[in-house]
Amino acid sequence: MILGRLRHVKRMKKELFYIGTWNVNTMLKAGKMQEIADQIVGFQIQIVALQEIRWRGYGILKNDTNSIYYSCNPNTTGQAGIGFVIQKSAMNNILSFETISDRIYKLRMEGKFYNKF
Questions:
Q1: Which terminus of the chain is more exposed, N or C, with fewer CB under 10 A?
Q2: Rg of the chain over CA atoms, in angstroms?
Q3: Cα–Cα distance between 89 and 46 in angstroms, integer?
């Protein structure tokens, strides 16, 4: 009878990602981005999908702690728009982003056994 863990077996470190969604209603208000960043850090979420950010066009905003990938209506401000806020710790596992429309954005992540999404 064997009690406990075998000595030659190494424990694998689990790498977990916490993913969430947030309907922000608008990110045109002053201080809204800082509020979102504080909440994400507080809840230790690595990837957050944002809905209704209502900016114009598409692009990437990067700072020391996270990156924002967004896609909105290129012609008008204040309608629809989506994006992802990704913490720096999760950036190595991101394979690609694809803008499909101002309401659909595709994020591909690297997985241990297969790639996600």
A1: N
A2: 18
A3: 7
Domain count, the chain: 1
Global model pTM greater than 0.70:
yes
6-61: per-residue pLDDT in tens?
454 455 456 677 888 888 888 888 888 888 888 888 888 889 999 888 888 888 88
Q: Is 38 left (phi over 0), alpha (psi -120 to 50) or beta?
A: alpha
Q: Which domain holds residue 48?
A: 19-109
d(CA 66, CA 88): 5
For tokens 């850090």, the residue is: 41
Which of 78, 33, 32 has the alpha carbon at shortest distance from 55?
78
